[in-house]
Amino acid sequence: GLFDFVLADLGVSSMQIDNPERGFSYKVEGPLDLRLNPDKGISAAERLRELTRDEIEGMLRENADEPYAEQIAKEIMRTFRQGEQIDTTGQLKEVIERALVFLPDDKEKKDIIKKTCQRTFQALRIDVNSEFEVLEEFLEKLPHILAPGGRVAILTFHSGEDRLVKKIRKRQQKEGLWSEVAKNVIRPSKEECHRNGRARSTKMRWAIK
Fold this sequence. Notes:
Layout: E1 3-9, H1 14-17, H2 44-50, H3 53-64, H4 69-81, H5 89-99, H6 107-128, H7 131-145, E2 146-156, H8 159-174, E3 180-181, H9 190-195, E4 203-208
Parallel strand pairs: 1-2
Antiparallel strand pairs: 2-4, 3-4
């Protein structure tokens, strides 16, 4: 039958992120895998070896809005040309640090490297798991699995996800598939962010069929 309510939490499991064997975090050494299902598809290390410089740069821009995408893509290709591998999280972090060597050495540089690592790992994870394609398929099917008056709430955790949700929902609203939609996103309170730092980037959008 049809659903009265759907809650979609698009965040990656904290248990996966914190497991060094899965390679989701640049903070701990581990294999550069990043697959949500380690038994399916290819690892992030294998994926990087498949891509051209332009494809890596495009992936970083599209999946994570990475401002240093060009420099990172260039350094990745230079690393491969020299016969070096990028098989671990630490090796990819070192590549990113080399790509940003031109930045002045100060406290701000450490913050830039940290955020660049976060975005780069995010972009790779999205690519390896075809996350945007899966999300788009879900969003297209969503109005058709809800009962009349059914409600949906979607939690996104980065700008790429939120743009896709907003774009498809806007088109579907014009097509008459939603009777009411949220005009503004709902953000977590300061108290919630203090209790759970990973909630900081969360945005919630809702709609009623």
